[in-house]
Amino acid sequence: MPVFTPPADLFNPLADNPCRTREDVERALQALVRPLEAFRSPGGARVRLDAAAAHFDLAAADFEGFARPLWGLAPAAAGGATWIDWEPVARGLAAGTDPEHPEYWGAVGDRDQRLVELAAIGLTLRLAGEHVWEPLSDRQKRNVADYLLAARLKEYADNNWKFFRLMVDMGLKAVGVSFDPEPSDRFRGEIDALYLGDGWYRDGSPRHVDHYIPFAFHFYGLILATLDDDARNERFRERAKAFSADISRWYADDGAALVFGRSMTYRFATAGIWGAMAFASEEALPWGVIKGYYLRQLRWWTRQPIAHRDGVLSVGYTYPNLLMSESYNSASSPYWALKAFLPLALPADHPFWSAEELPCPARPASRALRHPGMVVSNPPGDSIALSSGQQNLTMRFGAEKYAKFAYSARYGFSVESDERRFFDAVLDGVIGFSDDGRHGRTREANEIALIAHETLYALWRPFPDVEVESWVYWAEPFHVRVHRVRTPRPLHTIEGGFAVARQGDIAPIVDESAGRALVETKADLSAIVDLNSTLGRTGRAHRAPPNTNLIAPKTIVPQLLGQIPAGESLLACAVTAQGNPTALRDALGSLPPSPDVTALERLMAGSGVPVTAMTGAADR
């Protein structure tokens, strides 16, 4: 019986797009925004895509649906696109800022979601003012100006939000509206206070060093350096250049971006850093290399089922998945991905577009990125970051998004779906503990986090009375994890490797034995091997609950299970996964040596640097 194969474009409006040229990229933007018009309100101000809620009010969510497509449309218009129908956008801008109109977006409050979306309005006034400002009546222009002027005096979050006021200022200047510059001058100083060095920022406090650094801090900074005539913006160019070599390690040679932290539903916004360098004509790397990172990212997304049947982007990462979402994700949130289309503002003869796309450069075996507290390696088809020193205790699944030991572009990471089913937990990239066999605990925060050369160390507590010291380092193609556990009572433990996709009805090859778990599919091999078998840990190929992984809706993860007695215990394992099962199978015959904990202690005592000490006094 023939197997049913759905059309390639059923769940991805970009499926037929090769994403090789400027014309391809503009066609991709058209395909993404086309489905949205069916959901625009009569007055044009609101775009509502479904009934799911975010933590902010519905009017703000509808405004989000209006504003986020502008991240792509405004640059396209500046680059000469003539296919955009601006009439409903201009009509909606007038309606949304009119307190007497039924589609009014509502008054802007402190730390309000509307402050986020107004950044796109600022960019649009600067790049496409003739389409959205000039058609308005004097009264409508006054309403728009008053709305923006009132918003810029509100309290903004102490993180990347500081840029939003600067983006609004840029738009106001473009249309001749004057304002008091003092609040924004103060924000510039506060943005500088978030700068860590080497191109890295921290996104507020506690320290978050995630994708908001490339697709927010550097993205907005390079826009301001290009469009806003202020000498102080030049510092953003210098920082972006310093950042380029480090951030390139977050991208696999096939285009996939490292899956780490919050807001992964913004998807190909992760191409925004490369697009912003092009927009700013900042050749931080050779143009062909920048173009390669940019286009490979877009092409990777053309192969993922990222949309609903109507072509509207879903909340999720590579597939619809509300489980992984944040409380601030409405149905329109994924359209921040359109920040990737900033280079459409450039003409076809710009060096970025005219350069020959170059393949991903060869990269050293691993690179320590001290500011995010990572050691990154780039095996074929992946970017894998060993991580320590970050935490997020305020966000749903914050531990899964920030505190695992390893993150991958190819295998993503998983979130847990039930805290009361310890033996059914995914636990990829972590070690978990349970004292009752039902509830599990993993690393959430560190008491101490150090980095020495390319080794990470952390002291943390899964329970108040249980102390764990962990060391993580590369021994290519493995990474090694070492845990010294001190506990006053016996504990169950499960430690997981990388979760790989279960492919339909094809049964994977599994090895579940003493001290070893291995999963091999047609596309991948993932393994975890005990390097210290005194506790007698047993291997398991665990079929994880569905829809827990960001990359694949059904996964299987190799795990080591064991019992830890009261007192002090030492556990060590080697973990690996790659998309070349044959080559990796050979490597399993030559495991890393059992770790020398005394040598690891000496390393940290002699050259270990606190990760938090790299991030400024506000972090400590």
Automatic annotation (TrEMBL):
Highest classification ranks of the organism: Bacteria, Pseudomonadati, Pseudomonadota, Alphaproteobacteria, Hyphomicrobiales
Protein name stated in the entry: DUF2264 domain-containing protein
Xref: Pfam families: DUF2264, DUF2264_C
InterPro entries on file: DUF2264_C (IPR049237), DUF2264_N (IPR049349), UCP014753 (IPR016624)
Annotated ranges, domain DUF2264: 21-359, 365-575
